[in-house]
Design brief:
single chain, 2 domains, four-stranded antiparallel β-sheet, 2 helices, 19 strands, about 35% strand, signal
Length: about 240
Amino acid sequence: MHRLLLLSAVVSSAASQAPPCPLPADVLASDYPSPWAKGGLMDKWKDGANDWIKCPDHFIAKLTADSKAFSFGSSYYCNSTSGKWMERGSKFQAPAFVSPVTYPTGTAKKYCPITHTPSNGASGWIALYSGHEQYCPAGEIPTLATDGKISKSITCQDNGKLSIVAEDGSVTYPFHPTLKCIRAPPPPPCPPLGTCTEADVKKRFGPSAVYGAPTITPSKGSCSSPTGKLVYLKVRSE
């Protein structure tokens, strides 16, 4: 009995000394979507057994150091099991980079609301901004979670809707869609030497690509890496 009580005391002591969830890293002010500005200090308090964080206005966040910033706003508690900050209702996990921010008074907010669905964990509401649509980590692209089509480009419009161009050329204008980050597919390989046509070039590098040069015979060329929007055909040595 004495041994059980001693073991219980050790477990209780270890639990009480468990380190709190580490605070997220700051987002650099230069990465904020305009016109967000650095806000006050993050509110921190304890409610019974839980530690909490909250921003007086909103949070600016990034999934990784090399991704684009977005905004969201809520209170997050420290989940002692996972060691992560989570929203109470949705269980959405706070991103790795978070900073409190403020918005200029009297300025209309222009953003595109989405529901972000992480590869593991609960979904959560966030806001994207023009020029900051690529909120996914490097090497991944945001795409609609509902239709399975890979997104070629995403633009946040002033009316709050996204303009999403899929790889197949189809365009949708959803309001508050559910997006997920997927691994960007590799570009299609160049066709073999001697078979590179104008259609091949435009398929690989887009409709704005320029095909070849007047002095190059397509039958003796192959697709090469683009220089800006100009694509050259590299002549095969005979």
